[in-house]
Prior knowledge:
Blueprint: E1 2-6, E2 11-14, E3 22-27, E4 33-36, E5 39-42, E6 48-56, E7 62-72, E8 75-80, E9 87-93, E10 100-106, E11 114-117, E12 124-128, E13 135-143, E14 146-155
Parallel strand pairs: 1-7
Antiparallel strand pairs: 2-5, 3-4, 3-6, 6-7, 8-9, 9-12, 10-11, 10-13, 13-14
Amino acid sequence: MKLDSIKGESVTLTAEQINEAAEYNWYDADGNLIYTGASLSVSPEVTEKYKLEVVADADGFKDYDEVEVKVNRYKIVSLSPNPANTNVTIAYDVEEANSAYLMIVGAFNFTPSNNYILNISQTQSNIDVSNYQTGIYTVALVVDGQIVDAMALMIQ
């Protein structure tokens, strides 16, 4: 199983309960026991795998499962103002990326996209949207050739 997370965001991993008393043990990728209990909250900075061991109290039967928390290192932090009239400031996190750009695509009418190359050493960009028609748009963050995050933007 895979779960997606954003860098620094807390994720709760919850074991499916079995129909008898049992112990739930969570292990890190190196096999170290990190928690005993049905639910584990983690805030990984990088993609990590966790192993769950379920041990039935009655007969000691063990079963295992694995979950990978995939951390998206890059994200759109905010769009301000939203809705926008003439300009929108887009805050982003692309630390350690090789290249990044924003793509603004209309949600309706198959409007062609506009791309805005980002300075990866900065954390925000101001974009003039005064020539955009009123409507709903998607702002997509593209890092190293992959769309990694998106947010809706309303233009009035």
